[in-house]
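Encode chain A's predicted structure.
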Amino acid sequence: MNRTSRRLIILLAAACSAVALTGATVAGAAAAAAPRAAVTGTTATAPKPGPKAPLSVRISGEQMGEPLVIRAETDETLYDAVFDQVSWMGGAGQARALSAEDLGVKYTVLVFSGDVATQTYDLYPFAKGGPRACRPAKQPGRTGTAAWFYGRLNMPETLRAAGVPLAERPGTVTGGIGGGVAVERAETLDPGKDVDRVLGDLQRVLLLNAGVVIAITAGLAAIALLIRRRSG
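Encoded structure for chain A:
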C-alpha cells in the first residue's frame, strides 16, 4: 500500500466520522425541539391571582358611568381576553412615557382575587404610535416601580368587546403582539402536528446521513480491494 493510498483512506475515514458526528448533533437538536413544539402558542405570563378565590377585572375610565366588572366564573372568555392585556407586564418596561396629549384616553384595569384587589394597570388604546400601557408604581397594598409598555394592538377591540364605549377608528389594526406574545385560543392549537413535523425532519436527516455513510463505506471497500489486487 503506497503513501497516497493511505492518505486517501485516512481522509475518507475522517469524512465518515464527521458525517456521523453531524447526524448525531442534528438529531439531538431536533429531539430537544420536539417538546418545545408541543407547547407552541404558549407564553410566559405573570401568574393569575390565586385560583381558590373568584377572579374578576374591573374597568373604569373616561366616558364611563359605573365601572365594568367582568367575572371569570360567568364569562371566562372575556375575562381571559381582558386579563391577557395586562398579565405579561413584568420587569422594568419597554417604552417611554408620552405626554398626556399623546397618550389620549385612559382606562384603568383593576384585577381582583375574590374581593381583594391585587394588580392595577392603566391602558391607553389610542395613544400616538399605537396602544400603550402603564403599570403604576402604586399597586394595591404595596408600592413598586412604574413601568411603561407597548400595548397589544388589539387593545381597542378587547376593551370595546368588554363594554367600554370606544368609537370605531378606520384603519385600526387588529390582533398583534404588542409588548407580549399573542395567545391563540386553545382550540386552534394542534401540538401533534408540530411534533410530527419535527420527527419527520429528524427522520430525513438520519436517512441522509445513513446514505452518506454507506457511500463512503462502499468507497473505502472499493479502494481496499483495488489496493489488494495491485499488491497481489
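Residues 3-39+191-231 form one domain.
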